[in-house]
Amino acid sequence: MDILQSVVNYILDLGAEVFVPALMIIIGLIVGMKVRNAFNAGIILGVAFIGMNLVIGFMLEAITPAAQALAELTGINLTAVDGGWTTAATITWAWPYAFLMFPIQLAINGIMLLFNWTKTLNVDLWNVWGKIFTAVLIMGITGNMYIAFVGASVVAVVELLLADLNQLQIEKVTGIPGVTVTHGMNILAVSLMPLDWVLRRIKLFNKKMDASALREKIGVFAENNVMGAIIGLLLGFAAGYSVADALILSMQAAAALTLFPMIAKLFMEALSPLSEAINEFMKKRFKGREMFIGLDWPILAGSNEVWVTIILTIPFTLLLSFILPGNEVLPFAGILNIGLAVPALIVTGGNLLRMLILSILGTPVFLYAATYFTDIITNLAESTNAVKIEEGQRLTWSTIEYPVIRYILTELGSLTILGISLAVIWVLLFIFYRQQMTKRNKELSITE
Amino acid sequence: MKKVIVACGSGVATSQTVASKVKRVLEEKKVRADVQAVDIKSLENYIKSSDVYISITKNTKEYDIPTLNGIAFLTGMGIEQETQKLLDLLK
Fold first, then answer.
1. From the list A86, A174, A265, which residue is nearest B57 (CB)?
2. Which residues form the PTS EIIB type-2 domain (chain B) (predicted)?
């Protein structure tokens, strides 16, 4: 037993870039991948870790001094650098217990289908990482791995229940029958619904606006290189840099934002044979049954309203990060708040004006959640050796998806009074959401 | 070599899933093509240099190159049909 323990520790100490690929190769062989393909996928995974490490290190090196200069110049302390979801995913996959979430999610989905508690088969196995990340956050607060996995399982259940409720609305937006979105970001819709319920009653906020013309005009600001260059330049000036230094920072920021997705897709490339094998397995089990297929959020990415909302929220996010007392997050790689705009799209049914208001109202919640979870994210990055972090550098994700339930679960995991009360309120909100969506689904199916 | 692009919200997850799947299908059929996952926010920049666009969203715009239904590759429903269309386009 001691020998086994020391072997495991030895491999863990080699860091995520060796440990996770090794695990991936073993799992690949177990699920019957060809040896060549299993090794291929495993090595790509290692490349993804090293690549992300390089870009995150590059980003921290460029941004942290600017953030520190800003703090000295203005007293505004924004030293938690936002690495976006690609950074969060990298750190999450490096967690030694990450892969355990696959069988847990499959079992939950299988049982819920079997007992007719859901109609959705979630085939989006990439976003298992969101549940692992939830477990990581709960683990960081409570220190208890069992509670962490229970909390992550709650998310997996809620995702499926919401995927059922949202299916018709999503079909209306995408025009694709039989599919829904199982991404956890839509859990935020539960908290947005009461706000929208109020806004809907005000005549002004029911105006239709043409999002496509607007997107045509401002769409360029959402392109990674352009957005990075602008944020870098603004940050350089805010930090009191000379024009030359600000221009250099601007181009470095553009480079980081452009490179992040290029490298992050290597994770997907490595994991896709595994997720395909699991999908085939699940589909075979539930063949011939009428089901909704649960997919990742980008099937909604054709919605102009989503992009216009995301882009118009950027200046508010930057402004709020500077003026909100207690915020420590410097929005950067994660500044596009997809996890706010997409649930807002579902809640409002695509009303641009209300989506915008919900996004602006929701932004402080995201910034505070990111501030709150910064130390956990930074510590995990260090302890797994997934990312090399220098003294004084801090990492976070400014737009942590479904922040509300994640916060509640960490509090509930510690069994605080606050946690229990918030959980009760959340359940009531969920009941309200279900009632509202059931009503809407009736209307939607009549008009069809 | 002809170029096929798949776009999603970030050019990372869904698009790469579809791209990997399409790559494997094409390998089986011994068809050579360059399949790339791209960011939908920069789609316009990629369309010009590509031959086929595999879309996973409802298209609000018409593009100059043939567009295929990427959802088929995700769900498996209608995948044979879309594969055949792709093969014809790559001939």
1. A174
2. 2-91
